[in-house]
Amino acid sequence: MKNKFIFILIICLSMIGTLDAQNQNNRFALTGKYNLIDNLTPLDKITLFDKDNFSERTEGGEISIFKNINKFINVGIPFRMGKANVRESGIANDISGRLNVSVDLVGQIGYFAADYFITPYLTAGLGYQLETFSGENNHGAAFPVGLGLNIRLFRNTYLQAQSEYRFTTLENREQIVYGAGLMFAISGTSAEPELVDADGDGITDAMDDCPLLAGTMALKGCPDSDGDMVADKDDACPAEVGLAKFGGCPDTDDDGVMDKEDECPTEAGTIELKGCPEPVVLDGDNDGVPDGDDKCPAEAGPASNDGCPEPVVVDSDNDGVPDGDDRCPNEVGPASNGGCPVPVVVDSDNDGVADGDDKCPNSPGTVANNGCPEISVEDKEILNLAVSNIEFNSARATLKITSNAILDQIVVLMNKYPDYNLSINGHTDSIGSSVTNQKLSENRAKSCYDYLVRKGISGTRMNYVGYGETQPIADNRFKDGRKKNRRVEFNLYVK
């Protein structure tokens, strides 16, 4: 037994020496716990771990202070006081309440991180244990080992639970201690980190982009062999003075193409010609057509005629159409009409679209819209709003009174655009049978048609049709999708 205690003592002292050498975080914690204690006091001829050998559990308290050495290790001093019910060897019924006091030096090993919710740990150490009874003191060394758990409640507050077995040098006084309480972390002052400069260039490794190669402050500690202010690690041409924009490579002729990609490195050229200059172009007649492409190099002429002079063009009526191409060489007319005069065009509304091509001959419009007036963005928005604002009574084709306002706005549009017709299209969701939905969509479209007729819009300018559930615009599996699919659409068009 004595050899076992000496071995545990050596292990604890070694661990505590290691803890002191690894001081990094420099944080403290205070704990307070409520303990339950099993005092193991075997009687003569009874096995140590026999269930009849345990006394009744007693209560006690504990306060301790711990120092966080690093994120894996704590070291601390717990002080305990409690009551011990023990039975002396050979006196089976002698259970006495004795004062039991201990103070330990322990280490905890685990992963301690402020942002972890639960952190388990192992604990071991050495200490002093005192037992007082009937005016006498019984004391000796203790060797606690155990395991525990910290549960973070708040930023610096933890719930701590721990179970511990205490070996002692006292005869028949080993204990099992169960404890639970609170731990409060207290921040300390971190030690200044050691400044390291491995390459000795006067720039610490933390600030040095090249910590193993001596360099300059301007390049954050990196060397520059060719002195072009591009660090060797970033220099594609470390032995040649170059430019930063070319990764440290030179551009001798300063034409924007670096030498290793320049096919004419000593002559300034263009990027398109890979650094070579434009070739000399000969143009003897100065007509802008190079002699090599000019079919008449001694006579100026346009490129459209391969550099040759244009032939003399005869235009008897001076209408810009040469007589050779003019079907009416003696009458002025545009080229679009073969040089002949254009017949008189009637444009009743003066919108630039001849009545023969004008779908709205009495209303000024645009060429793009075949002579009809364009529908304004605001008026198109009214038609779009009608899709979501026309409402019917559930499963019926009767309009709700809330639909009247938007339908009245459509009446205004029909009067504003008398050349336009209106298509009314009814749609439903997929709830119910397709036959029922088809009929319902037709009836709802007709209800809108009938309302507009009652408001004075000619039925000849409108048509209505129902599409049932065949043209959904949203997913019928969802309520919002079905709501969007139950709609009536209004489209203005010109025949």
What would the keywords be for this entry?
single chain, 495 residues, alpha+beta, 60s Ribosomal Protein L30, Chain: A, Porin
Question: Helix share of residues?
Answer: 10-25%
The first-level CATH class of the domain at 2-186 is given as Mainly Beta
Q: Please give the alpha-carbon distance between the first and last residues.
A: 112 Å
- Rounded to an integer in angstroms, the radius of gyration calculated over CA atoms is 50 Å
- Tell me the strand order in the biggest sheet: 1-2-3-4-5-6-7-8
Weakly predicted, low-confidence segments: 1-26, 43-50
- Order of SSEs: HEEEEEEEEHHEHEHE
Summarize the topology.
Blueprint: H1 2-21, E1 27-40, E2 58-70, E3 73-87, E4 95-110, E5 118-133, E6 136-154, E7 157-168, E8 174-186, H2 377-389, H3 404-416, E9 421-427, H4 434-454, E10 462-466, H5 479-485, E11 487-493
Parallel strand pairs: 9-10
Antiparallel strand pairs: 1-2, 1-8, 2-3, 3-4, 4-5, 5-6, 6-7, 7-8, 9-11
Outline:
Helices cover 15% and strands 28% of the residues. The chain has five helices and eleven strands.
